[in-house]
From TrEMBL:
Family matches, as CDD domains: PaaI_thioesterase
Record protein name field: Hydroxyphenylacetyl-CoA thioesterase PaaI
Family per similarity comment: Belongs to the thioesterase PaaI family.
Source domain of life: Bacteria
Keywords noted in UniProt: Hydrolase
GO molecular-function terms, A-Z: acyl-CoA hydrolase activity
Residues of the Thioesterase domain: 50-125
Keyword Cell wall biogenesis/degradation belongs to the record: no
């Protein structure tokens, strides 16, 4: 199995059980070893009292991209620590894209950066996540 096939099969197994990302309206657009792209069109249900995308929705999108990136090696991985910086508001009707990339992976710990962008190219938020590998795989794999 190639690394790309492993990433795709891991993502398919995770997506099948990821009710939260699906319920929020996210789509899994791309996955590769140590990387993932998810997107979400901002609807009225995603807006806060200021009429812009709620920060929790943006955070959830970034966190989901982080999760698919760090779980792309068919190892069960969870978040150890996350932080986000909001830079510009997401607006109704925009499709936000969260692009996650692996920065470092050492033993059971990893660091991933996620940029959330709007269709016009502006950066909506920057997210950094720390991951920790736990026991288990997403699918049975023989070596």
């Amino acid at each position: 199995m190639t690394p790309q096939e492993r990433a795709e099969k891991s993502a398919a197994a995770m997506w099948a059980d990821d009710g939260a990302s699906q319920w929020l309206g996210m789509s899994l657009d791309h996955v590769a070893p140590g990387a993932a792209v998810l997107s979400l069109e901002i609807g009225p249900q995603h807006l806060n009292g200021h009429g812009m995308c709620h920060g929790g929705i943006i955070y959830a999108l970034a966190d989901s991209a982080f999760a698919f990136a760090c779980n792309s090696y068919n190892r069960q991985v969870v978040a150890q620590q996350n932080s986000i910086t909001y830079l510009s508001p997401g607006q109704l009707g925009e499709r936000l894209t969260a692009t996650a990339r692996e920065v470092a992976l050492s033993g059971r710990s990893g660091i991933y950066d996620v940029s959330v962008t709007a269709p016009d190219g502006r950066v909506v938020a920057e997210f950094r996540g720390g991951s920790r590998q736990i026991k288990g795989q997403h699918f049975e794999e023989t070596t």
